[in-house]
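Form 7-S
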Amino acid sequence: MTKDLEHPLLQQPIDALSVSPEFKDMSKANGFNTLQEILDEPLHELPLKAKSGYRMLRELLDVLQANGLEDLAEDWENP
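Output:
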């Protein structure tokens, strides 16, 4: 499901964001350039992707929450 929102954070390159080096590595390994690209995928599958895990999902959720975008991830547990 595409969760599109006009928020500049979602379109910024992940390399430019204040996220961990591990999150940047995971994003690169899976071809994600922006947070929007991650949100375009089912979030319950993120921990199963290359160089990922539940810690990467937690970091994504924390970034969204810190920017008032937590509603974009409300259904991550319900595929």
